[in-house]
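Q: Study each token:
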Amino acid sequence: MRFQSHNGHLPSPAIEILCYLQEHPEAKDTLEGIMVWWLPERAMKYGLPQVRASLALLVGCGYLKKRTLADGHVLYRLNESRPPHEAASRN
């Protein structure tokens, strides 16, 4: 399955996040939770900055929504109006 952003191919962490959300569309979590639960085997390979940048890209492309909680934590979740399978069908 291939995913693209508006400027080309998405980085590996972004693709894995979208794949996870295809299987778990109700999932929502913080950056740290995504590192632990959504990308546990690859989180160390990618590193926090690369996952953070991938999340920002996915939000910018409209695939994810983010919400800042009262305590300052940011939750990321699937944007139901632009599900991840749309990215794959654009290829």
Observations:
- Strands lie at 4-5, 8-9, 28-29, 64-68, 74-78.
- The two ends are 9 Å apart (CA to CA).
- The helical segments are 12-23, 31-38, 43-46, 48-61, 85-89.
- The first helix runs from residue 12 to 23.
